[in-house]
Amino acid sequence: MAKDKLSFDEHDERVNPRPETTDFDTIVESALSRRGFLGGVMSFGLGSFLIGSSALTRPALATEDRFGFSAIPTSTEDTIVLPEGFEWRPFLQWGQPLWSDVPEFDHATRGTAASQARAMGDNNDGMAVFTKGDRHVIVVNNEYTNTNLIWGNAEGTPANDDDIEKGMVAHGVTVSEIALVDGVWATVKDSELNRRVTPKTEMDLTGPAAGSDFVKTAADPTGTKTLGTWNNCGNGETPWGTYLTCEENFNGYFSAADEAHEVSAELKRYGVSAKDWGYGWAKIDERFDVSKHPNEPNRAGYIVEIDPFDPTATPKKRTALGRFKHENAEVVVAANGKVVVYMGDDERGEFLYRFVSEGTYSATGNNADLLDKGTLYVAKFTDDGKGEWLALTPETTGMSEVEIAVHTRQAGSKVGATTMDRPEWVAAHPTRPEVYVALTNNKNRGKKPNAGGDETPVGGPNPREGNNYGQIARWWPAGGDHTAQGFTWDLYALAGNPTVHSDAYAGSANINAGNMFNSPDGMMFDETGLLWIQTDGNYSNDKDFAGQGNNQMLAGDTVTGEIRRFLVGPKECEITGMCWSPDRRTMFVGIQHPGEEGGSSFPGGTGTVPRSGIYAITRKDGGLIG
Ligand code: FEO
Ligand code: CA
Ligand code: CA
Ligand code: CA
Questions:
Q1: Which ligand 1 atom is the nearest neighbour of the CA of 234?
Q2: pLDDT band for position 473 (50/70/90)?
Q3: If you measure from the C-alpha of residue 151 to the centroid of ligand 4, how many angstroms do you get, rounded to a whole number?
Q4: Ligand 1: which atom is nearest the Cα of residue 346?
Q5: 274: Cα separation from own chain's centroid
Q6: What is the pLDDT of residue 323?
Q7: For 397, phi and psi rounded to 5 degrees?
Q8: Ligand at shortest distance from the CA of 522
Q9: E strand or H helix that includes residue 128
Q10: Burial class of residue 159 (count of CB atoms within 10 Å of its CB; 0-12, 13-18, 19+)
Q11: Which phi-psi region, left, alpha or beta, contains residue 214 (left: φ > 0; alpha: ψ -120 to 50)?
């Protein structure tokens, strides 16, 4: 969410203002490094920019047209637009019952707490399909709710406690069996595999923070059992068949009855304050009152592992993966068998992380607790196209293992990690040791430090001051080894608007009037090695964003650099979350918060409530897609 109303970040910032800028010397230094850095991009184009230290490590691939579709123009229509030869249909929408004893979505009331708890949650984000034998499930995150939409008034005010609880249980994760019915993938109502995971579902805390004083509360004096997950953004999948859901803006749900209550400095770094973002959960559940239960926020901000085929399994919060505003979790198995998880912390000036497991993955062994022990690292980039992973250990940070797991941002600051332009999804190439991160935008770049006071100088993979367009950076682990300390990096794309700007804000050479976009966010490779890019940006179609239309989805050839627009979403939505059916003939794409400002009735049309949902995209000829 960006645009005119307050985004999560903007809200966070008003509630919790950052220290003001910075001295003159820093600004001058930053400007110089920006000119030096971007000179190469702008005068020689992306092609020559790519020929850096990393070119030698990148195997050549054929460069024939691999897209399988023709690029489409931008759109401001209130619908999904696709290339010729493709079609879409609603697949699983907010409020759609998972069981037949639940009423269909009611456009007048938008349901009750009871109906919502047994229906698809709201504002779906990351998702994945899992197969076991001949059964398949789709697992999807439900990140948050738009209070104006779920409560049906422009002010976003709950009428009663049931409204607040309806909002609460619209968060979490939805699991539904899916099956091919007459050649079309469909959800299976009443399947014993269907499940809702909500902020009320019991979970185990595991890893270094479990049982520590930081996570003990009145309700859980052992610090090992916690209730629920919320603000579930991107996702990940493990090679042992589990789903990872990533807790992002967990802070916005805590408040204090006394609005003058001051939270600790540790909580401030995460944006927790006496004011929530309008959800009102403390009114119905005291654990969200941070003045009474100051350790409760230490029990959120993690990655949660879920067994998609056992609705009775207790989800596990894996604290070894660190506590921050987790975007997604890109899992790769390194050549030495270690499990490596790449993770972004989506806040202005926060960091990019890597977890390396202590144990090794075994295709036939027990991998159940591999994510409980290992080492966290943060990325440090330098302007010469090189970088390294800095280990977060008691030796490097002066913090205990428990503190590193709970106050991960502070640990990253201690070792001098590179402050990034809001790391969103990380995507690893399916066959090459090559990893991409979407840096969505950062209006504070070069202007304001992060919440921990770390400077945000212009340079490295964050080369533009007041960056309102975003970029995609990528790196190659040294020796092709995902556990190596060093890497080389470059920029795959600098988003921009070449019809408005002729400087660095025009974007890199692979951005043109026909494919331009802003704020890359969701990102994933398909099996053929095409990089799919989803946007969560400014959809005003005006000024800096003129000609960019609604949010969209594009595909990138990572060898030639070419980027083509594949899909444009309805009004006021973002596109986020994607996965494929087991036969790869359907692509599932998430449409989140259409009509967040009241300007859409997608997909039902006039008089209906706009609904987030998963939309199924197929080729009209039934061919493979991705
Ligand atoms: Fe939920 Fe950073 O996006
Ligand atoms: Ca979102
Ligand atoms: Ca996102
Ligand atoms: Ca975003």
A1: 1
A2: very high
A3: 23
A4: 2
A5: 25
A6: 99
A7: -110, -20
A8: 3
A9: strand 124-132
A10: exposed
A11: alpha
Residues 179-217 have pLDDT tens digits of 999 999 999 999 999 999 999 999 999 999 999 999 999
Mean pLDDT value across residues 106-134: 98
Give yes or no for residue 465 CB within 6 A of ligand 1.
no
Q: Are strands 202-206 and 316-318 parallel, antiparallel or unpaired?
A: parallel
Atom of ligand 1 lying closest to residue 231 CA: 1
For the chain, give the number of residues. Answer: 626
233 close to ligand 1 (CB < 6 Angstrom): yes
Is residue 327 in contact with ligand 1, taking CB distance under 6 Å? yes
| CB of residue 170 inside a 6 A radius of ligand 1 | no
Which residues fall inside 5 Å of ion ligand 4, going by CB? 521, 536
CA of 232 to the centre of ligand 3 (A): 10
Distances from the Cα of 601 to the Cα of 2, 77, 109, 595, 597, angstroms? 19, 11, 16, 7, 11
The response to whether residue 490 sits with its C-beta less than 6 Å from ligand 1 reads: no
Locate all alpha helices (DSSP H) within 51-160, ordered by sequence: 113-116, 147-150
Q: Please check whether residue 298 is in contact with residue 381, taking contact to mean a CB–CB distance below 8 angstroms.
A: no
Percentage of the chain with pLDDT > 90?
89
How far, in Å, from the CA of 552 to the mean position of ligand 4?
13
